[in-house]
Design brief:
377 residues, alpha+beta
């Protein structure tokens, strides 16, 4: 029996797997990636395309996000991948939202050093023609956020790995088992020096005992997309409102957030019950991506709740005025999430095998930096 050989095997061709393949290939290693689907269909293409450093936990995770941003821009420069350095605006329409943003800025010197600042309502609407001026008090401007189009970006990264580094990506190939150095697949047996298991939402096939003890649950989210905006209208900065301040780890530990949470619980109980916060980004061809909600559990029903979509759109309307708000697509996404404050699951179930999972909704933002840390210098 012929045995194929590689320095590094990666299981999964979502953004986490592709990032680890890139980090290994940059070291000159022979890398093969196995992906059971014929093309990317998971969370890596069902997202906003936001490289969203500003929302990440202050400190090392924020720096990891900035490193990932650098790599996205490096790939874009080499390939022509659409990656707009739009920055972001957190729009504040209530005093408690302003208080959270001001406290965050005081607690985030690294963000301030990179140009994050509070701006006036007038300055915000000058930066964004989509931001509603009605009742707008102020905004947090961050220049670090990058907008990519995930449905184009993930295939483009895969193509870049093949063309630039000779990475062997085997779509439609399932990894049956790992018993180092042997990796048994539907494309034959391989021997590898090391393996990275980046299976995303499929975390029961390989090393199920590891995942049973990991604390991972699946997050179901609902998202929508408009058609192309009239006249080639560009969104500019990606936008969000006050609910987002209750979602991202960047705002954890801020004393002002308690008052905001109390108000939201009274004014928007349905939104809070369904984990709704609202973000707005754009695609390469000018469509607007809107979402999302968050439900956590091991198994979810496969159906969308239209009340959730309506709640997302109603909240979006409080801070953004879309030229054409007609929805052309709705979908559900699923990703593994850790609910205990950890930003990722990185464990070694056997020598030379590393499982990487649980980056939650920050895969596009954190994966390249995380992979460099895991692969080593």
């Amino acid at each position: 029996m012929t045995v194929n050989r590689a320095d590094t095997v990666v299981v999964g061709a979502g953004i986490v797997g592709l990032a680890h393949a890139l980090a290994a290939a940059r070291r000159g290693e022979r890398v093969v990636v196995f992906e059971r689907d014929d093309f990317a269909v998971g969370a890596s293409i069902r997202n906003f395309g936001m490289i969203w450093a500003i929302g990440q936990e202050r400190g090392a995770v924020y720096e990891r996000a900035l490193r990932s941003r650098e790599i996205w821009l490096e790939i874009a420069a080499k390939t022509g991948l659409w990656a707009e350095q739009t920055g972001s605006l957190h729009l504040a329409h209530h005093p408690d939202e302003v208080a959270v943003l001001e406290e965050f800025l005081a607690a985030a010197p690294a963000a301030r050093e990179r140009g994050t600042t509070m701006i006036t309502a007038r300055e915000a609407t000058e930066r964004s023609a989509t931001a509603r001026p009605d009742g707008l008090l102020a905004a947090l401007w961050s220049p670090t956020e990058v907008n990519v189009d995930p449905r184009r970006a993930i295939p483009a990264v895969a193509e870049h790995l093949v063309a630039e580094y000779g990475v062997d990506i085997r779509f439609g190939t399932t990894v049956r088992s790992i018993d180092m150095p042997a990796v048994a697949t539907t494309a034959g047996e391989w021997h590898a020096e090391r393996v990275f298991v980046c299976g995303g939402n499929d975390f029961a096939t390989l090393y199920p005992d590891v995942f049973a003890e990991s604390g991972l649950v699946r997050c179901k989210l609902q998202m929508m997309r408009t058609g192309v905006q009239p006249g080639g209208r560009q969104l500019g900065p990606m936008l969000c409102g006050g609910l987002t301040l209750l979602h991202y780890a960047a705002f954890n530990g801020l004393t002002a957030r308690a008052a905001l949470a109390d108000r939201m619980a009274v004014e928007l109980p349905f939104h809070r019950e369904h984990g709704i916060h609202v973000l707005l980004s754009q695609t390469a061809d000018g469509r607007l991506t809107i979402g999302d909600s968050h439900a956590y559990g091991m198994t979810h029903d496969p159906f969308e709740n239209e009340e959730i979509n309506e709640a997302v759109l109603s909240y979006l309307d409080t801070f953004a005025a879309l030229p054409d708000a007609r929805i052309t697509e709705r979908w559900a996404g699923y990703y593994p999430s850790l609910r205990d404050g950890r930003t990722e699951l990185v464990v070694s179930p056997e020598p030379a095998v590393t499982v990487v999972n649980g980056v939650g909704g920050a895969g596009m933002t954190l994966s390249f930096g995380l992979a460099e840390e895991n692969i080593g210098g």
